[in-house]
Design a protein that fits this description.
The protein is α+β, with helices and mostly antiparallel strands. 22% of the residues lie in helices and 17% in strands. The strands form two sheets. Strands 3, 4, 5 and 6 form a four-stranded antiparallel beta sheet that branches. The relative contact order is 0.10.
């Protein structure tokens, strides 16, 4: 598994239940602390080490690892991953960045890779460029009440919020559907967070 988040954890459990001989999960970020630090004051969500029931089923976990290449055999089947260790570097006047640690590159045997990586923002080239929608400082589509800077174009979920849980995508999809319905019809009978179905009955 490439990715150390919740999706990677789900993949770990599923792999074990499908009879994998061994399961390894790698994460590019450093191993988080076991307890909240001063950098994570309450009530902020603490970025601490979490071990799920899937991990407890069996898994080797590695942090500060970058995947450099997939290695195949003569038939084109995956046989290994080329990986290396990374560390956080801070240069004066520049944001911190992960850099490869020299001399740590190696190959590990592998027959199947599941990509459970996050992302920074939606794909910029293609549809977003063609539509010409405004984007925020994080590269997500800027939308007020789900309406973008382009008339008649709406955005919700990961496109608007950035990467998040699927429950947020479902919630925003429902909210956006009501806004689109109002835009097209002038009114909407669809349920919404602010407007329950009972309030729509006259």
């Amino acid at each position: 598994m490439i990715g150390g988040g919740d999706t990677g954890s789900d993949c770990v459990g599923t792999s074990n239940r499908h009879g994998a001989k061994s399961v390894t999960q790698i994460e590019i970020l450093p191993k988080p602390p076991k307890e909240r630090t001063i950098a994570m004051p309450w009530p902020n969500w603490p970025m601490i080490l979490r071990t799920s029931t899937s991990h407890e089923e069996g898994c080797e976990r590695n942090w500060s690892i970058i995947t450099k290449a997939f290695v195949g055999d003569e038939q084109g089947n995956l046989k290994a991953l080329k990986i290396a260790e990374v560390e956080m570097k801070q240069e004066p006047g520049k944001p911190s960045a992960l850099v490869e640690v020299p001399g740590t590159e190696k190959e590990i045997p592998c027959e199947l890779v599941l990509l459970a990586m996050g992302f920074l923002h939606p794909q910029q080239n293609g549809m977003l460029e063609q539509l010409g929608v405004d984007r925020d400082e994080r590269g997500n589509v800027k939308a007020t009440r789900y309406l973008t800077s382009v008339e008649g174009v709406f955005a919700a979920g990961d496109m608007r919020r950035g990467q998040s849980l699927v429950v947020w995508a479902i919630s925003e999809g429902r909210e956006a559907a009501r806004v689109v319905d109002q835009y097209l019809e002038g009114q909407s009978a669809l349920d919404a967070k602010e407007v329950g179905i009972l309030s729509l009955i006259k």
